[in-house]
Amino acid sequence: MSWYRNTVWFLKGLREYTRSGYDSASKHFIPADLEVNVTGRSFMITGANSGIGKATATEIAKRGGTLHLVCRNTERAEEAKREITTETGNQNIFLHILDMSNPKGIWEFAEKFKTEHKLNVLINNAGCMINKRELTEDGLEKNFATNTLGTYILTTALLPLLEKEDDPRVIIVSSGGMLVQKLDVSDLQSENVTFDGTMVYAQNKRQQVVLTEQWAKVHKNIHFSAMHPGWADTPAVRSAMPEFHEKMKNKLRTEAQGADTVVWLAVSPAAAKQTSGLFFQDRQPVSTHLLLARTYSSAEEEEKLIEVLKELSQKFKPT
Hints:
Layout: H1 2-16, H2 19-26, E1 42-46, H3 51-62, E2 66-71, H4 74-88, E3 93-97, H5 103-116, E4 121-124, H6 142-162, E5 169-173, H7 197-218, E6 223-228, H8 235-240, H9 242-248, H10 255-267, H11 269-272, E7 278-281, E8 284-285, H12 299-314
Parallel strand pairs: 1-2, 1-4, 2-3, 4-5, 5-6, 6-7
Antiparallel strand pairs: 7-8
Helix pairs in contact: 1-2, 3-4, 3-10, 5-6, 6-7, 7-12
């Protein structure tokens, strides 16, 4: 089954996820969707110092949004802020230094942020693909800690702040790679399998899609969406998947093309009219499963994911 999933997915990717796939899809875009002014609205973007996060931040800054860039590395964050400010002239850009694999730090950051700022849109973009099993200081597998638990805690902690605002949105930058994975709640930290960083990442991205769907059912006043940026030429792809990058580099999307749907979901009135909880690719909702791939999960499995994340996250919540 894994061979079938991977083959069907790769052929789909060659057709849809590449630069030519974007060129084909973009013929149907409505330019007016992004001809908006979002002055006065506040956007938080994690992993915003490079790649899709930075490209998203730049486009939102051009449209007047107040930006909160959440980054792990101070030096790279300050450089990104300078570049975005220079390019856009937007002075309302704020830096927050945070490691998204540190659950206690995320709770503390979110609680402080809630007392000092408003928030209209949360963009969960930060992620990692570590190809050897590494543990954080808290004993958590690092991919899971960053991609799944970190996203869960930050979103959960900021939901009350988002609910206070007009037209609140939460966007998760997931990956089409999740299509090759069925949700597995039995081994969330990859303790009982031969470790494969690419598949662990894909499983984390499946978990993010399930979270999006589950949150949308509960929090009706917030618009939730997940998305796939396509195969883009980003620093993360170059470092985590060097062989794939070398083989595909002439076919990869630009960072701006990868970010396009994130920006659309974040700022366009058209996006807010879509049903909450969907998975998007090139401004269109798409299926979260490949044909005949047997990746559907039960309601019990999906509820178990939420239950486990809630229990685990509470262990790190400051009293």
